Every structure is written in structure tokens, then in C-alpha cells.
Amino acid sequence: MLSSIKLSPSSFTSTGFLPNRRSIPTPQFSPLPIIKSLHSAFPTHSFSSQKPLQVASIDNLAISKNTQQRKTECQAYEADRSRPLDIKIELPDEDARLEAAKRIKIGIYFATWWALNVVFNIYNKKVLNAFPFPWLTSTLSLAAGSLLMLISWATRVADAPKTDFEFWKTLFPVAVAHTIGHVAATVSMSKVAVSFTHIIKSGEPAFSVLVSRFLLGDSFPMPVYLSLVPIIGGCALSALTELNFNMTGFMGAMISNLAFVFRNIFSKKGMNGKSVSGMNYYACLSMLSLLILTPFAIAVEGHQLWAVGWQKAVSQIGPNFVWWVVAQSVFYHLYNQVSYMSLDQISPLTFSIGNTMKRISVIVSSIIIFHTPVQPINALGAAIAILGTFLYSQAKQ
Prior knowledge:
With 397 residues, the chain is of the alpha+beta class. Helix content is 65%, strand content 7%. A hairpin with a 6-residue loop joins strand 3 and strand 4. It is found in: Plastid, Chloroplast membrane.
């Protein structure tokens, strides 16, 4: 409460003031001076306060030459009930600033992820057109990523993960599924257009729901099931109207979808509670997949076929072919690494939406670069499938 204190002339004696004509020092201005002890300032005034007071205003402080009276009116209030100052101080919203920085970071991750993926698919298709050995091409992709990460750990550019036997044990089924999915997708791209492979791979959510429902017993709300209709219908329409349809390429994309669904399931079950970053997790996954894939690649294709095919590709393309192989191998690892780093920063829903947009960028860019002939009905099927994937992402949340 704001209280008003009026001090009468009897509270002061003029002796010591006027006769000696002492000048009153000009008080230093302070918006809220604190009165610590009223008893020491006004020993004859019967006033008591147990709390510190803030001076609100001092009015009519004057000494007249014609009178020996001094009248002072002082207003004060208790410090713990102080009135707010009429000063607007705007402090920067720290939460808003951090949120804006996070959005920028995620945007950079997404843009880098999509750009690296587009570059990989372009060089991968160029290599496969000149060197149709998808098993070796897949092996080189995993080998390049493994080598890059080993160098990074050895030079301390990146901190090596702390793993144990249990970690690698839980990672093994993930690596098996990742290896199958990677090879199947590469086989598909060696037989059909990049755009067609990614249109079929946009049907991965349908495989995820079906596997979870019939093998794991999971149930989903009705909007999730309804979102599968445009996904399946769009993929089917696009496949039926594909000018360069190839059954091996189609089945490769379908197997890749199924394998990556199991990879995601094994990852969720086996990696809970593991304190390995997304970058190091994918590095370990690449190394283990490389060990699994190498003997199968040698058995399926063989080093003799690789030697003949390599010489033929170099003679036709020239030294640029070697750089194509290096580029597709390095960019494969980089785009996957950035995608796992993105998953560390965002929710699975945001990640799935980003993955859908990634496929759109790959389909459009590959059609433009490779001049892939596309019928209107084929483009409509692709659009319907991708729209269904987006609806699935929304309904899954």
C-alpha cells in the first residue's frame, strides 16, 4: 500500500538550520532510494516499519527566508509491494531465437540431404549404364563410406563411438536388411529409369503398414489404412504405363522396400537406449554391411567379369568413368550420413515428410537430366503415389 507521511513543523527544530545558514546539499537523484532506518532519520517521529521502504516522491521541500518553519511531505511504500516502473524493457526472447536457429539448422540438413541424394542418383545411373555390375557398385559405395569414417576416427576429425559386443549383435540384423535393400535398389536402377525406381520406392509406407499389421500384430487408425489406397494405386498406375518397364527392375525396387521396412523395425527394437550418434551409427552399419556383402558380390559377379567390364567402360567413357565411380560411392555415404544426422534433430514424422520430398526432387531431376520419356498418365500415377505417401505421414502422427 502506498502511504503518505506528513511531517509537521514540530517534528523539526529550526535551531541549527537558519542561524548558521547552512546550505542544503542538493540530493543525488535516484528513482527509488531506499529508506533503511526511519528511526535514525526522524528520532522524534512515532513511525515504525519492519520492512525497507522505497521513496515514491518528495513534495514541497523548501525553506523560506521569512519563516523558520520547514514543511516536508514524503510518500513511501514497502519494498515488497513496490509498484511496477513505467519503463518498458524488451528482452530478447531466447526461446524464439533458439527455435529459429534450430529451424535453420534443419533446413540446411534437408537441403544438403536432397542435393547429395540427387547427385548420387545421377552418378550411380551413369556408372550402371557403362558398367552394369550392381553388386560391385553397391560394394564400392559401402567401402568408400567405411574408409572415410575410419580416416575421420584416426585423425580425430570425428569421435570414434564406444561400442561393445552387444552393440554389434543388435546391429547385425539391421545390417543384413540394409545390405539387401541397398543391393536390390541398385539392381533396380541398373534395369530401369531412376524415376521409375523411386516411384516404386515411394510405396515403402504400404509395406511398413502391412508388415507391422500381419507380422507384428500392430494396429493403426483408419486414416492410415486409407492413405495406402493412393500409394498402391499410384504405384500400380505408374508401373503399368512405364514405357521401359522391366520385371527385374520392378522386383528390385519392391524387394528394397520390404528390406528397408525390416531394417527400420530392427533398428527400433535393437538400438533403444544406445548412445551412438546418427553419424557413427550409420558408419558402423556401413562397415558391417560391407563385410556381409563382399563375399556375395564376388560369388554372384566375380572379379573376372569386373575386370572385363571395367576395361570396356574405361575405353568407352575415358578417365571420367573413374571419377564417376568415386563420386557415386562418396555421395552415397554422404547423403545417408546426413539423413541419419537429420534424424537426430527431428521427429520421425518430419523425417518421413522430408524423405517424400527427397523422392520428388530425385524423380524430377532424373527426368530432366536423362531425358526420360514420361507419359501424362505415368506422371499422374507418380503424383498420386507421392500424395498418398504424404497423407500417410500425416495420418501416422
